[in-house]
Amino acid sequence: MRTLEGRAPARVVEAVEVERSGSWTREVVVGLGWAVADAVVVARRYLTHLVRRPGEIVGTLMIPVMAVLLFGFVFGEAMGAAMGVDSVDYRDFLMPGLFALTMAFGIGNTTIAVVTDVGRGVVDRFRTLPMAPSALLVGRGMADVVAALVDLSVLVVMGLLIGWRWHLGPWAALAGLGLLLLLRMAFTWIGIFLGLLVRGPEAAMKFFSLVFPLAMVAETFVPARMVPGWLAPVVEWNPLSATVLACRELFGNSVAVGDSWVAQYAIPMAVVWPVVLLAVFVPLSLWRYRRAGR
């Protein structure tokens, strides 16, 4: 009897624990479902505003498009001669760099959009709604990735028009575009954090000016071997350079391939760098968002 009496309560406790565990699991699944649904609604809001203001997309594409025209045709022959290749091969070298450059310039749009929402009280209004706290930021990130896909589509078409081609098949090309979108996702969360950190679009523009050194001190327009020796390690370990080198490898644009460690492992590094940036700036953005509400 003692044994039976001792076992019965244990079974009851075990059954209750299983029930609680199952209930907790269902609550987590349902909560994640609602969080995703809320984020999709927020992303749709941002995309709707973007469709109504196409000037933002045009403004984002102006610098890469002008870079295609200037470096592809005006300076392309001189740049190619300095690298020891003709102008057509230099365009193959150039286009992956411009793809990544466009992803980097998206930081400015994200930062300014978040700052504007904070200044207009949009963030405060969203706080009053029965929605997941992370939905506003995740929705912003989803919308930016969709907008980046549009930007990339335009630039790919433009690259094809000027003679750029991928040479390793469609799946390798899609993998390269996927790495570019992964980089854009990481830069989006940097922009979200900066947008929550600074006050006013003017301050956001000052932070955006820091993107230019990041973009230029990389393997975007010239290879690392053509920069001063003291600057070469900075160029090689720039997160932008890893994605550019990986895309050139996946597109088959193997012009002026470097022999550095990063160049030899460009594809893994093109995954590692964005993942590290996301691991840093996603928690920072969520922390800043919660702190701003106090």
TrEMBL record:
InterPro entries: ABC2_TM, ABC2_TM_bact-type, ABC_2_transport, Nod_factor_ABC_transporter
Domain ABC transmembrane type-2, residue spans: 55-292
Matches recorded under Pfam families: ABC2_membrane
Compartment(s): Cell membrane; Membrane
Entry keyword annotation includes Cell membrane: yes
Keyword list, A-Z: Antibiotic resistance, Cell membrane, Membrane, Transmembrane, Transmembrane helix, Transport
First and last residue of the signal peptide: none
Highest rank taxon of the organism: Bacteria
Membrane spanning stretches: 59-81, 93-116, 137-164, 170-198, 210-231, 265-287
Family membership: Belongs to the ABC-2 integral membrane protein family.
The name this protein goes by in its record: Transport permease protein
Organism placement in taxonomy: Bacteria, Bacillati, Actinomycetota, Actinomycetes, Streptosporangiales
